[in-house]
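Researcher: Let's do a round of design. I'm pasting the structure tokens now; please hold your answer until I've finished.
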């Protein structure tokens, strides 16, 4: 076993260092990207950062990084990932080089969609923000084809079968119509894979454009596409408050 048998599990230490979430750390361990004291680590290994050298891709991790939480207005065509084997643009490309180390996206926004995406260097914070218990709302502006009937929108609001489970109730309202297309505001408390696109397709109104404009109390506002900003203390506090 690498490192100290009485230390913490590697995935916990890597997440605490703000490199990525525990789940991603486990994937990196399986892929052989993590080493302890020069030996390739295995799942289940433990280490003590006060005496062991833990490296990701050969670079030693720091145990106490400065916490960061950023809001990015992700453009369409950019991948919500820290790496892409196909060489496509990733969200870290949108940031200054000196800020990229240790940052990773909180949740996902598919490549065809744009808008609000959080990035942090705190693995435990990622786990907190993506846990279903906290049910942070996410607000979208969605152009769909056609003019959905009231009954269609009501079905969307009540919930529809998706992956053998009914979607949670959603807020869906019409903002405007324009030449055979409709702009909707959709507010969700869950985030299944491509959920809005799949539900809209199921209802016969495919998505033309999808933009996430807010995550809980954190709104894009005037933030330009491709730009980022740090969250202020009030936004950070509201996101991380534990629900009663």
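Researcher: That's everything. Go ahead.
Model: Designed sequence:
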């Amino acid at each position: 076993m690498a490192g100290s048998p009485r230390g913490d599990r590697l995935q916990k230490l890597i997440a605490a260092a703000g490199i990525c979430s525990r789940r991603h750390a486990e994937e990196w361990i399986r892929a052989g990207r993590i080493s302890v004291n020069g030996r390739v680590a295995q799942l289940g290994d433990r280490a003590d950062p006060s005496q062991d050298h833990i490296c990701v891709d050969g670079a030693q991790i720091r145990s106490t990084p400065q916490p960061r939480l950023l809001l990015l207005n992700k453009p369409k065509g950019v991948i919500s990932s820290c790496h892409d084997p196909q060489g496509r643009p990733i969200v870290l490309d949108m940031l200054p080089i000196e800020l990229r180390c240790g940052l990773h996206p909180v949740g996902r926004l598919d490549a065809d969609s744009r808008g609000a995406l959080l990035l942090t260097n705190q693995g435990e914070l990622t786990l907190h923000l993506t846990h279903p218990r906290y049910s942070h709302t996410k607000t979208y502006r969605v152009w769909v084809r056609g003019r959905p009937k009231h009954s269609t929108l009501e079905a969307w609001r009540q919930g529809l079968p998706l992956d053998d489970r009914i979607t949670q109730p959603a807020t869906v309202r019409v903002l405007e119509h324009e030449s055979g297309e409709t702009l909707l505001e959709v507010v969700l408390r869950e985030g299944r894979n491509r959920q809005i696109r799949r539900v809209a397709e199921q209802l016969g109104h495919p998505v033309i454009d999808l933009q996430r404009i807010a995550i809980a109390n954190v709104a894009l506002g005037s933030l330009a596409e491709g730009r980022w900003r740090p969250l202020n203390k009030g936004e950070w506090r509201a996101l991380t408050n534990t629900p009663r």
